[in-house]
Recover the amino acids of this structure.
């Protein structure tokens, strides 16, 4: 990998991002343009991107026809469905996948053993670190810094940062102008908790300036 900083794109899928999606995060369509800018900046400047996406089947624990919207949710981002597609600019770099079943270390190594990669990690729950391959992926990539953006702040974004924070020596930044929450609690509370965990709460323009200088 050429650069020490990786961009981490969380659940920016049709069902979350668009008002007509199956589990719309209110206001998420307002950040689609920012998400495009962040991805474009990353990909055009040689940075690698790791995205995670929901990839559900009807027997997943969180999928319910009578959801409580805390632990269970209506069917969304079903494997292979249009609602599970990521929205907006995805660049030219071939996208490769980390599957849900355990992968051999060599197979994961092969995905990242290049100057720049764009990887999508599939997951069946709100916590991408429940995919048995995610910790290995982070360990093998061993980035110095990870810049996180996407939805939903109070669920999957939170779990990405919590999981990354368990890996020592990664500087974590969250782009507050490229996230949206489901508002199960105030966004500021989530930001405060994340800051407490050592996450820098920042904006795209600041990260961009910083990376262009460095
Ligand atoms: Zn889900």
């Amino acid at each position: 990998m050429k650069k020490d900083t990786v961009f981490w794109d969380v659940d920016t899928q049709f069902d979350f991002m668009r008002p007509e999606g199956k589990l719309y995060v209110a206001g998420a369509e307002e950040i689609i343009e920012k998400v495009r800018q962040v991805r474009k900046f990353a990909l055009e400047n040689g940075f690698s991107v790791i995205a995670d996406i929901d990839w559900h089947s009807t027997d997943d624990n969180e999928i319910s026809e009578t959801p409580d919207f805390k632990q269970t949710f209506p069917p969304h981002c079903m494997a292979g469905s249009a609602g599970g597609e990521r929205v907006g600019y995805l660049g030219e770099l071939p996208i490769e996948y980390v599957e849900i079943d355990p992968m051999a270390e060599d197979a994961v190594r092969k995905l990242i053993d290049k100057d720049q990669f764009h990887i999508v990690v599939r997951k069946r729950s709100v916590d991408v670190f429940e995919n048995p391959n995610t910790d290995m992926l982070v360990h093998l990539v061993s980035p110095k810094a990870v810049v996180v953006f996407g939805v939903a702040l109070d669920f999957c974004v939170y779990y990405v940062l919590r999981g990354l924070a368990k890996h020592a020596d990664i500087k974590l930044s969250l782009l507050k102008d490229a996230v949206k929450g489901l508002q199960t609690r105030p966004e500021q509370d989530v930001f405060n908790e994340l800051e407490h965990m050592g996450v820098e709460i920042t904006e795209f323009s600041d990260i961009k300036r910083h990376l262009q200088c460095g």
About this structure: The pocket of zinc ion is lined by residues 54, 56, 62, 73, 76-77 (CB under 6 Å). The domain at 5-213 is CATH 3.40.50.850 (Rossmann fold). The mean pLDDT is 96.
